[in-house]
Design a protein that fits this description.
Helix content is 68%, strand content 0%. The protein is mainly alpha-helical and 402 residues long. GO terms for molecular function: metal ion binding; outward rectifier potassium channel activity; potassium ion leak channel activity.
């Protein structure tokens, strides 16, 4: 069986995979160059300290290493030399399940019993799925809010420039104003707003952690990014001391900062992914698929898919009858007689498609629900799934790239 030709989606996927592999290799090279000397120096200092301690206190190295292994096991179980709050009381357990469903996973608390590990598998399966759905719904609403604000600013700008009537009201005669037909917010403006909000939120949270936890400001910023991006290394974890000043207020502020930060960074990551997708489309367009001649044949076949042929007449009849209501007898006779499509039917079909397109653009620009349903040969996932579908429907540049 012949393999499918390399279309645009497959080309984009392969190009992204190659770029990610190169990005991982470059990151590994940089981190290895930065952290490897420090790790080697720390290992040398530790070996020197270990031998000196064994010699001074007359303790054999095997006994000392066995003691240190027991200490490492105690550290993994959450036991510290300094007094810490209980890990598995209700506030500690609530903090743990929050890091589980948000996929942060600090690792400072883990279930030790078999029953706890089994329950975590079941609990995390539904919890993580529900949290991802919550993040997608948050993304949809934050994009809608930003679109509403940006559209209001755009209308105000049009009024000042005289392109919009002073008595224009939102939702009335939108199709009559040429400057607002099909208007959507720019993905770059949305990315800028979300980036500014994420930076401001991280700076405020870092100030709180610096004052309460005693970290320096750079470590606080580092903790905010690692936590908000759900990386969750666990080398820095907030709210772990036994007692804080204004402990209830700090716990509430810590929870709210983490919740808002994760939602904001998730939305920002999705917008950045759309920009990366546009860059990939631009690169593919520059390449023009010269490495694979089959792409030209595939694109030619795809461009002729919507051509009017005798075999597609009956399928088009159902769609057009639902939208226009009825045909005249001449057109109906031609469709059922096996002849080629007439110019009258071609004109009517073009008018219907244009009307549906204008209605979709108007409803999208004004935030109305899109109730237009068109029967196509594509499946239900043709418009995208999840966050990408939300961005494609609500932002301008993404719709042009599909």
């Amino acid at each position: 069986r012949r393999l499918a030709p390399l279309n645009e989606d497959n080309g984009r996927f392969l190009l992204l995979a190659a770029l990610i592999a190169a990005y991982l290799s470059a990151g590994a090279t940089v981190f290895s160059a930065l952290e490897s000397p420090s790790e080697a120096d720390a290992q040398l200092r530790w070996n020197r300290t270990l031998h000196n301690f064994s010699r001074i206190f007359n303790i054999s190295l095997p006994e000392l290493r066995a003691f240190l292994r027991s200490y490492e096991a105690a550290m993994a179980a959450g036991i510290r030399v300094d007094a810490l709050r209980p890990r598995w009381d209700f506030p500690g357990a609530f903090y743990f399940v929050g890091t589980v469903v948000s996929t942060i996973g600090f690792g400072m608390t883990t279930p030790a019993t078999v029953a706890g590990k089994v329950f975590l598998i079941i609990y995390g399966l539904f919890g993580c799925a529900g949290t991802i759905l919550f993040f997608n719904l948050f993304l949809e609403r934050i994009i809608s809010l930003l679109a509403f604000i940006m559209k209001a600013c755009y209308e105000r700008q049009l009024r000042r420039s005289g392109l919009l009537p002073p008595n224009f009201r939102r939702g009335s005669a939108v199709s009559g104003v040429g400057s607002l037909v099909g208007w959507k917010p720019s993905v770059y403006h949305v990315m800028l707003i979300l980036g500014i909000f994420a930076i401001a939120l991280s700076c405020c949270a870092s100030a709180m952690y610096t004052a309460v936890e005693g970290w320096n400001y750079v470590d606080s910023l580092y903790y905010c990014f690692v936590t908000f991006s759900t990386i969750g290394f666990g080398d820095l974890v907030s709210n772990q001391n036994a007692v804080y000043q204004h402990q209830g207020l700090y716990r509430f502020g810590n929870f709210m900062f983490i919740l808002m930060g994760v939602c904001c960074i998730y939305s920002l990551f999705n917008v950045i992914s759309i920009v990366i997708k546009q860059i990939l489309n631009w690169v593919l367009k520059k390449f023009e698929c010269r490495c694979c001649p089959k792409c030209h044949k595939s694109s030619t076949r795809l461009s002729r898919r919507n051509a009017i042929t005798p075999g597609a007449r009956l399928r088009r009849h159902n769609v057009t009858r639902d939208t226009e209501g009825q045909y005249d007898s001449d057109t109906e006779g031609r469709r059922l007689s096996g002849e080629m499509i007439s110019m009258r039917e071609l004109t009517a079909s073009s008018k219907v498609s244009l009307a549906i397109l204008q209605k979709q653009l108007s409803e999208t620009a004004n935030g109305y629900p899109r109730n237009v349903c068109i029967n196509t040969r594509q499946n239900g996932f043709s418009a995208g799934v999840g966050a990408l579908a939300i961005m494609n429907n609500r932002l301008a540049e993404t719709s042009d790239s599909r």
